[in-house]
């Protein structure tokens, strides 16, 4: 239009003159408080540490009864729109270049949502240390659009499901998916792909703004609570470099780079809900901070649609601007700058979809400073389900005054309810001294905000809080969420891959936290790995894991070493082999404890291999051992050893000779590193026993193996040059455990396989190879396994020979019903008392029939049953001491020890002898173990376990899905022995 250029020149000149006037303000900082009072000062005070809150002119700005609505640094101004940035659904903006897309998965043992990595265009790190990551991670589910090359006409505009290419092409799409550096679209019936370098702007599909708000609040205010309660506020940073980022008061940290009294030296760490990493913002670059209570929504955080029907001189431009005047720059109407606003040119009609909990609206309206004393508008506020406006102003002339919208309230919001803000150019009744038509009708909707129903909002946040813990994605919280105490906690670590950040944590204060899931355990899924973290307190709370009612893990949590790296403490591991191939119900609980010890649930993973340990040659089968070969591919002289005297069985025996026997190959290779991440390693542990004179060699194969072999020797100081001598002492007969630090010897290397050689005139037996990520050897013990060096003294071959001489005299069969027999073992010969596994039908005082293995029968009565261990007692009164009885005491141990094996026994099918075998623990708690399945017989419920001290350790109370026996400890003596003898439970 011919009038547009002169109109624009006039408006820009007016805006420039006003901006110059703004620079004459006396005080550097100005803040608007919630009660409408304005405070100013040249000095911002007290915000230089994490435990302090800001003050201006003696007024607390964040906590207390009258916090700020906003504060501005007048020495700065708003930024120009960045050329590249990510815009969030909440209206936040992160300037920088988007580099890549990362799918949902596990990173450094923690569950991560799908996200994009962005290299910021501003300084954002607390430290310049190059060890730390150089990008920021932004959650995909909070992103509205990604801009690689700004298109000016699209500033403050959002066109859902549209991509704008650098060649000018515009494409609407029906579906989108991402790869690392590209998008893949379905547009109509056509499939197409574009690299990030080909895209100017990508506007993602429309999301529910209300659900996004609730998801954000559930992350920022877990459980809908804060301590203290008056800090339940959001704070938004806007910098002169283009950053706009919103967080909660709890997710703000502060530090000072020198003079604590100089705010230009301060730096603030913030973490919005959309960020997986903290952002450190220099105070001297922060132009604006906005703040509002949790039960309000500034209207600029919601999407809108604008129509400008009836525009005349301004109809070819001037779309609504967010938090700017319509001509850009700071919006000002009346006496002060607007903390937030919409800048529109009348006529303008903006509509906003209302969230269901909205119950009112507040704000004001005025003409922008750029119009000076000209321009004339009328402000109107509508709700879509009513025909008459909720508010209508008189004509407003010039920018000298603003008009409050008053208390605009309504009842329930219809499903499609909208709020409508209309700036009318007041053509009818326009005063004579106002510019005609829509010239200079630049209008500001000043600090418009929705009011929410607070109680209903908090209930919605509480309902969504568990979803904020990504590790719980496939789990159901079966405990009462009202009894859990969620909070946002600082993860105080200094790792190369993770700076201190805020996480949603949980304390089970009044009752345990319980999680449950039903899952098919695939045959290749061997491990359940639980990654948790806490930073303070004793080894509590306790994490329990139950699978199909079997307690498989119970362990107190250890504290994180904040200056170490991944695997401190190590994740919790459960061996899933007893459940492989079956659908099971898994329950995880966190015990009740202090609210001061919240737990960070980082991941619950089902894995083929643990992330920090690599079992090698783990429980090899005879077929696997027969397939072992030399490095030349010839059959190896290797035997499978599964004899009883090896409590850590099975093992392999290698004949002495010159052949290297390859026992493992790795694809991908094992990466050996100084500070290993998950999937990388540093140490290895192996166990061996040498028969006859000689020594052993272990070789770590790698790509440069021929020129630079990596070989360790154990048991000689005469190894050839270039071989690392670990222990020169003779190693005959005894078992030895060796734990070399591979990095110290080899440096960074990729190991493709392991080979062993036995040197001398006999053979060597090998067992339990483990690779470990950590530098802490104790973490080798995270696996439930008997240490092979126990073979030096824990000889079950000899022990079984001793036991079997007398055991048949202590065992009887108890006829509990016509269909059910269970074994019992004599524990008190003088009084004729036997112990056995009880059942739910146990009735003290009733009589049962006993049969000794020699065929003689007896009548006995039932005594009491211990509810905890299910251990029941029966008694033959006036027992004959005929020399055909033997007694075995109940173990005095109060808990199991995973380092020891047990003899499992039960009467054979004929009832005249014993079936028995020695079994090892596969899963461990202090009171329950799953044992390896006896190889010589089918173990039944009620079978008896004998420990290495020839005492009764427990009874088999059930079977895992793959038939492994479940053992419960027998420890009711002596604490309630007299009570049980009297038939009391």
Q: What is the CATH topology classification name of the domain at 796-981?
A: Thrombin, subunit H
What global shape is seen?
elongated
Kindly state the number of beta strands.
76
Mind describing the biggest β-sheet? 8 strands, antiparallel
> How far apart are the first and last residues' alpha carbons, in Å?
96 Å
Widest β-sheet, arrangement of strands: 12-11-8-7-13-19-14-15
The gyration radius over C-alpha positions equals 37 Å
Beta-strand percentage? 35-45%
Keywords:
single chain; about 1000 residues; mainly beta; Jelly Rolls; eight-stranded antiparallel β-sheet; 76 strands; about 5% helix; disordered N terminus
Describe this entry's structure for a reader.
This protein is mainly beta. Among the domains are: 154 residues, Jelly Rolls (Sandwich), CATH 2.60.120; 139 residues, Jelly Rolls (Sandwich), CATH 2.60.120.260; 172 residues, Jelly Rolls, CATH 2.60.120.260; 186 residues, Thrombin, subunit H (Beta Barrel), CATH 2.40.10. Helix content is 7%, strand content 42%. The protein contains seven helices and 76 strands. The strands form 16 sheets. Strands 12-11-8-7-13-19-14-15 form an eight-stranded antiparallel sheet, with no helix packed on it. β29 and β30 form a beta hairpin.
Task: Outline the fold blueprint.
Blueprint: H1 4-22, E1 29-33, E2 38-41, E3 44-45, E4 55-56, E5 59-60, E6 68-73, E7 85-88, E8 93-102, E9 105-107, E10 110-112, E11 115-120, E12 136-139, E13 143-147, E14 162-165, E15 170-172, E16 175-179, E17 182-187, E18 190-195, E19 199-203, H2 209-220, E20 233-239, E21 244-248, E22 252-256, E23 266-270, E24 279-282, E25 286-293, E26 296-298, E27 305-307, E28 321-322, E29 332-333, E30 336-337, E31 341-345, E32 348-353, E33 358-367, E34 376-383, E35 391-392, E36 396-397, E37 402-404, E38 408-409, E39 418-424, E40 442-452, H3 454-464, E41 476-477, E42 484-491, E43 501-508, E44 513-520, E45 527-533, E46 542-547, E47 550-556, E48 572-575, E49 583-590, E50 600-607, E51 613-616, H4 622-626, E52 629-630, E53 638-641, E54 651-655, E55 661-672, E56 680-681, E57 683-691, E58 694-702, E59 710-714, E60 724-727, E61 735-738, H5 742-746, E62 749-760, E63 763-772, H6 796-810, E64 811-815, E65 821-828, E66 833-837, E67 847-852, E68 857-866, E69 871-875, E70 902-907, E71 914-919, E72 921-924, E73 928-931, E74 944-946, ...
Helix pairs in contact: 2-3
């Amino acid at each position: 239009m011919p009038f547009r250029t002169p109109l624009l020149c006039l408006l820009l000149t007016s805006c420039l003159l006003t901006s110059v006037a703004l620079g004459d303000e006396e005080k550097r900082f100005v803040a608007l408080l919630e009660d409408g009072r304005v405070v100013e000062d040249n000095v911002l005070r007290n915000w230089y540490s994490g435990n302090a809150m800001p003050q201006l002119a003696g007024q607390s700005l964040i906590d207390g009864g009258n916090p700020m609505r906003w504060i501005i640094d007048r020495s700065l101004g708003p930024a120009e729109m960045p050329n590249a940035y990510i815009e969030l659904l909440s209206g936040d903006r992160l300037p920088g270049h988007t580099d890549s897309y990362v799918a949902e998965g596990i990173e450094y043992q923690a569950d991560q949502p799908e996200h994009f990595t962005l290299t910021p265009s501003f300084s954002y790190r607390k430290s310049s240390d190059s060890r730390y990551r150089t990008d920021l991670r932004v959650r995909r589910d909070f992103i509205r659009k990604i801009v690689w090359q700004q298109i000016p006409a699209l500033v403050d505009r959002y066109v859902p499901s549209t991509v704008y290419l650098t060649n000018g092409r515009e494409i609407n799409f029906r579906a989108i998916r991402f790869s690392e550096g590209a998008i893949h679209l379905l547009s109509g019936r056509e499939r197409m792909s574009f690299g990030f370098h080909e895209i100017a702007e990508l506007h993602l599909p429309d999301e529910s703004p209300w659900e996004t708000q609730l998801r954000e609040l559930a992350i920022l205010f877990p459980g809908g609570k804060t301590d203290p309660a008056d800090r339940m506020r959001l704070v938004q940073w806007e910098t002169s470099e283009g950053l706009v980022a919103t967080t909660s008061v709890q997710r703000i940290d502060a530090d000072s780079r020198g003079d604590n009294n100089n705010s230009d030296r301060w730096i603030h760490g913030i973490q919005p809900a959309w960020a997986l990493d903290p952002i450190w913002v220099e105070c001297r670059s922060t132009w604006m901070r906005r703040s509002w209570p949790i039960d309000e929504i500034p209207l600029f955080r919601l999407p809108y649609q604008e129509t400008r029907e009836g525009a005349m001189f301004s109809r070819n431009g001037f779309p609504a601007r967010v938090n700017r005047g319509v001509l850009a720059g700071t919006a000002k109407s009346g006496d002060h700058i607007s903390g937030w606003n919409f800048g529109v040119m009348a006529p303008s009609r903006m509509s906003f979809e209302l969230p269901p909990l909205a119950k009112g609206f507040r704000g004001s309206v005025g003409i922008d400073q750029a119009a000076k004393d000209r321009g004339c508008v009328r402000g109107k506020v509508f709700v879509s389900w009513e025909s008459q406006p909720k508010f209508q102003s008189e004509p407003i002339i010039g920018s000298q005054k603003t008009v409050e919208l008053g208390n605009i309230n309504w009842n329930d919001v219809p499903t499609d309810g909208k709020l409508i803000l209309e700036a009318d150019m007041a053509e009818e009744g326009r005063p004579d001294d106002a510019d005609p038509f829509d010239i200079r009708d630049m209008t500001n909707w000043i600090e418009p905000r929705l009011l929410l129903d607070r109680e209903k909002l908090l209930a919605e946040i509480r309902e969504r809080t568990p979803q904020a813990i990504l590790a719980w994605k496939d789990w159901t919280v079966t405990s009462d969420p009202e009894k859990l105490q969620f909070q946002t906690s600082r993860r105080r670590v200094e790792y190369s891959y993770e700076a201190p950040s805020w996480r949603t944590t949980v304390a089970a204060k009044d009752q345990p936290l319980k999680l449950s899931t039903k899952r098919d355990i695939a045959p290749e899924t061997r491990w359940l790995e639980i990654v948790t973290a806490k930073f303070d307190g004793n080894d509590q709370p306790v994490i329990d894991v139950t699978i199909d009612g079997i307690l498989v893990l119970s362990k107190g949590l250890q504290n994180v070493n904040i200056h170490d790296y991944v695997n401190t403490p190590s994740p919790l591991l459960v061996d899933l082999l007893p459940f492989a191939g079956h659908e099971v119900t898994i329950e995880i609980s966190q015990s009740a404890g202090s609210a001061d010890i919240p737990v960070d649930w980082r991941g619950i993973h089902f894995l083929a291999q643990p992330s920090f340990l690599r079992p090698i040659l783990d429980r090899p089968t005879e077929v696997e051992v027969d397939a072992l070969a030399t490095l030349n591919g010839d059959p190896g002289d290797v035997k499978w050893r599964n004899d009883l005297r090896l409590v850590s069985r099975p093992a392999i025996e290698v004949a002495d000779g010159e052949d290297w026997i390859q026992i493992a190959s790795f694809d991908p290779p094992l990466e050996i590193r100084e500070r290993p991440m998950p999937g990388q390693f540093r140490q290895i542990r192996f166990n061996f026993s040498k028969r006859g004179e000689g020594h052993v060699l272990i070789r770590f194969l790698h790509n440069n193996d021929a020129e630079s072999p990596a070989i360790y020797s154990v048991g000689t100081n005469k190894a050839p040059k270039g071989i690392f001598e670990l222990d020169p002492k003779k190693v005959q007969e005894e078992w030895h455990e060796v734990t070399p630090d591979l990095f110290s010897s080899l440096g960074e290397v990729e190991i493709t396989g392991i080979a062993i050689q036995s040197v001398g005139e006999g053979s060597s037996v090998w067992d339990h190879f483990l690779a470990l990520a950590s530098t802490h050897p104790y973490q080798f013990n995270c696996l439930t396994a008997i240490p092979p060096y126990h073979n030096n003294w824990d000889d079950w071959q000899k022990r079984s020979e001793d036991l079997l001489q007398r055991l048949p005299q202590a065992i009887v069969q108890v006829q509990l019903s016509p269909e059910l027999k269970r074994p019992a073992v004599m524990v008190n010969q003088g009084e004729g008392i036997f112990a056995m596994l009880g059942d739910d039908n146990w009735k003290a005082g009733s009589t049962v029939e006993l049969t000794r293995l020699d065929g003689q029968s007896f009548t006995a009565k039932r005594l009491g049953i211990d509810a905890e261990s299910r251990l029941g007692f029966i008694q033959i009164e006036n027992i004959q001491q005929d020399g055909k009885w033997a007694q075995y005491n109940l173990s005095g141990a109060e808990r199991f020890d995973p380092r020891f094996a047990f003899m499992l026994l039960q009467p054979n099918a004929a009832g005249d002898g014993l079936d028995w075998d020695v079994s090892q623990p596969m899963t461990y708690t202090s009171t329950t173990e799953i044992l390896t399945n006896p190889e010589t017989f089918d173990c039944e419920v009620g079978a008896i376990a004998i420990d290495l001290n020839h005492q009764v350790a427990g009874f088999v109370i059930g079977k895992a899905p793959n038939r492994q026996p479940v053992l419960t400890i027998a420890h009711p003596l002596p604490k309630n022995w007299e009570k049980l003898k009297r038939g009391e439970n």
